[in-house]
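Below is a filled-in request sheet from our internal design queue. Each sheet records the structural input a requester submitted and the sequence that came back. We keep these sheets so that new team members can see what a complete request looks like end to end.

REQUESTER: design group, bay 2
PRIORITY: normal
MODE: inverse folding
CHAIN LENGTH: 258
BACKBONE (tokenized):
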């Protein structure tokens, strides 16, 4: 009797172990299937999808998606190299802008030239960046820039009545969106032949004029004429669709940006 009871108990235990093993394998198989489905879903997930699911606090500190973080890095490096940019770019900007000012010079002025032009010690800050186009022909990028600078700009103004006025341009505040086009793409460093830039949108341009050692109201209308000349020169010289091309590698790129 005890032998039969032992056999029955052994069979029941064996059956129980088999059933438990089968259920365990089915559960593990289900978990593996769900895990594979989850991994596949994450593989198809875009950055925008992840932003909808997770809050910024849920990301580890080494995961960075925001343009602001990327721009902080860019702005930090720009501040470091700005003294060298100022030295290199001031003369370039001066030589580029002077002919435009002469072209837009008011009739009441005999000449309008820079006697001093430096961009100052305050670097611009980039507040937005986007890639519009990318392909085999080139890359188009837009950068939003904010600049509350302290440049040292003095215009030497001569009127037809023989009165000369040194006018200082100060308290400049500018916000706008620049479009940069890198084209053509080549297999030689830095991998593009030229850079084309243009002011796609001017959001703000503020500045004040002050006569050095004098009064701007000494000649009626001179302040409005100079301010209008500066604004018109900026509007018509670099505002999109007007484009300026800077060759990087030797070549003729005049038709590359049409």
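RETURNED SEQUENCE:
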């Amino acid at each position: 009797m005890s032998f039969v009871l032992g056999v029955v108990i052994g069979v029941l235990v064996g059956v129980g172990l088999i059933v438990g093993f089968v259920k365990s394998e089915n559960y593990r198989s289900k978990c593996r299937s769900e895990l594979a489905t989850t991994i596949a879903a994450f593989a198809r997930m875009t950055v925008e999808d992840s932003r909808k699911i997770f809050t910024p606090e849920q990301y580890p500190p080494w995961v960075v998606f925001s343009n602001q973080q990327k721009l902080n890095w860019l702005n930090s490096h720009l501040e470091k190299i700005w003294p060298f940019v100022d030295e290199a770019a001031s003369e370039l900007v001066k030589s580029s802008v002077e002919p435009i000012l002469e072209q837009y010079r008011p009739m009441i002025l005999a000449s309008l030239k820079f006697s001093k032009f430096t961009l100052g010690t305050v670097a611009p800050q980039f507040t937005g960046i986007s890639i519009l186009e990318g392909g085999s022909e080139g890359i188009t990028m837009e950068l939003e820039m904010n600049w509350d600078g302290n440049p040292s700009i003095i215009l030497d103004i001569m009127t037809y009545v023989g009165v000369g006025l040194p006018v200082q341009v100060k308290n400049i505040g500018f916000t706008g969106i620049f479009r940069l086009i890198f084209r053509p793409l080549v297999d030689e460093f830095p991998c593009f032949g030229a850079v084309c830039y243009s002011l796609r949108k001017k959001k703000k341009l503020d500045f004040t004029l002050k006569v050095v050692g004098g009064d701007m109201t000494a000649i009626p209308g001179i302040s409005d004429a100079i301010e209008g000349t500066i604004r018109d020169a900026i509007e018509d010289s670099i505002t999109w669709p007007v484009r300026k091309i800077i060759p990087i590698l030797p070549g003729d790129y005049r038709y590359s940006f049409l």
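SHEET NOTES:
- The CA atoms of residues 31 and 71 lie 42 Å apart.
- Confidence is low (pLDDT under 50) at residues 1-17.
FILED BY: M.R.
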